[in-house]
Design goal:
five-stranded mixed beta sheet; single chain; elongated; 5 strands; alpha+beta
Length: about 110
């Protein structure tokens, strides 16, 4: 299992929320993408550059510096991570995703 980290600045609001998250606000999301597989003939599971290319194309370019409510309904961390999994699952041998919404809060998804 290898893991690569990505950062995205995104805005959203949770209209159902009774607290501050009802207001428009942003996060510096940290996404950890873990892929799993056997070592290839070069002794690696996968080239980090290949992971980066796919994640930037399918996720970062679509979410970074965007208003998430325009992309998905109810953009909670849980819904965002499922959206990311769906965007990557055909391109990468995913094992696990972690999406950090704040320094101390994250969600984990394994499909």
């Amino acid at each position: 299992i290898i893991t690569q980290e990505f950062r995205m600045e995104c805005a959203h609001q949770l209209n159902w929320h009774s607290g501050l998250c009802k207001n428009l606000h942003g996060h510096r999301y940290v996404l950890e993408v873990s892929v799993k597989g056997p070592l290839n003939e070069n002794g690696v599971v996968m080239n980090f550059e290949d992971i980066e290319e796919v994640v930037y194309k399918e996720v970062v370019s679509k979410l970074d510096h965007h208003y998430l409510n325009d992309i998905m309904d109810n953009p909670t961390a849980e819904h965002i991570i499922i959206w990311i999994w769906e965007a990557l699952k055909e391109e990468l041998p995913l094992f696990e995703l972690k999406l950090w919404e704040t320094e101390g809060s994250y969600t984990t998804y394994r499909g």
